[in-house]
Design goal:
3 domains; alpha/beta; 5-stranded parallel beta sheet; Rossmann fold; 434 Repressor (Amino-terminal Domain)
Length: about 325
């Protein structure tokens, strides 16, 4: 069924039906009720894309995340969905799977569909793609979340450096000297900041950095598992693991090798219910995902008003 059919059944013009669909007040209440009843009875759903193309502005925002399977990004997405619903905004979601070309394709699609703006956690190889993001932000409001690129752009980020620094320093204060570290890809700003925080905590507390105690993974469960087997062959009394997926892989190794987790102090960056269920003693941060969601949409709305002040926010944990 098309909008013309709704207009014919309601004995009104297509323009009147369109005004009702778009919540325009310039329609008599009786007419509005009749049109809405006919829409409901005929299960008519407006073509949102066509509506967007017919208007210069709409109520839809595009969201791009790099890994929907990762609970961390799923939680970020959940926060944005809740905040968008509260503000009566629609969402189109794209998952880049850490693929820069797919990320660029989603952005182009969102521009074609004339979404209000894009909120994005960039792929791991986006860090130095300054020209791309400069060009994109000249076409559509763009807000980065979680991951930075090598230039200050509007965005909302969790504090990484001192969050890790504080945990590692507590380990040291409790007598831990052989602290292992499972790092993420150093092309991702969050992974680099977390490793830098670890190194600085060691240095400030008089412990020499030992590169044999630092292993590099890719933020996946598989890499946490493989690196876990490797680092457990070395002498460690504590370990910091850079994200929850790698932590789950590490815990799988402990179970297979029948190693009691109480013998090794374990920390990871973000808390989640699965890790708490497996081992509630693991040190982690309760992430304020709802605050990140709220701030990112607020910044996007500021950019839409050409207000570029206070468009970069770092959330302390």
């Amino acid at each position: 069924m098309k909008i013309q059919d709704i207009a014919r059944l309601a004995n009104v013009s297509v323009a009147t039906v369109s005004r009702v669909i778009n919540n325009n007040d310039n329609v008599r209440e009786e007419t509005k009720e009749r049109i809405n009843r006919i829409i409901k009875e005929n299960n008519y759903y407006p073509n949102i894309i066509a509506r967007n193309l017919s208007k210069k502005e709409n109520n839809t925002i595009g969201i791009i995340i790099p890994d929907i399977k990762n609970l961390y990004f799923a939680s970020i997405m959940d926060g944005i969905v809740n905040e968008a619903n509260r503000r009566n905004l629609n969402i189109i979601l794209g998952c880049s799977n850490e693929n820069f070309e797919l990320q660029a394709k989603y952005i182009e699609l969102f521009i074609e569909q004339r979404v209000k703006g894009v909120i994005i956690a960039v792929t791991q190889n986006s860090y130095d793609k300054i020209d791309f993001f400069d060009q994109t932000s000249s076409k559509i409001p763009l807000v980065l979340i979680d991951r930075k690129i090598d230039k200050q752009m509007p965005g909302v980020f969790f504090e990484n450096f001192y969050s890790v620094y504080g945990v590692v320093e507590k380990f040291i204060k409790h007598g831990k000297k052989k602290i292992g570290f499972l790092a993420g890809p150093q092309t991702i700003s969050t992974a680099k900041e977390r490793l830098d925080g670890y190194k600085k905590a060691l240095k400030d507390n008089g412990i020499k950095y030992d590169k044999k105690l630092v292993l590099y993974g890719d933020f996946t469960l598989e890499s946490g598992y493989n690196l876990g087997k490797e680092i457990l062959e070395r002498e460690i009394d504590a370990i910091y693991i850079s994200n929850n997926s790698m932590t789950l892989g590490f815990l799988k190794v402990l179970k297979e090798l029948n190693i009691n987790s109480e013998n090794i102090k374990i920390a990871t960056f973000e808390d989640n219910e699965i890790i708490r269920f497996i081992d509630e003693k693991i040190v982690s941060y309760n992430m304020p995902f709802s605050e990140l969601a709220k701030k990112s949409i607020e910044i996007l709305e500021s950019l839409l008003k050409n207000d570029t002040s206070n468009t970069t926010v770092e959330i302390n944990l």
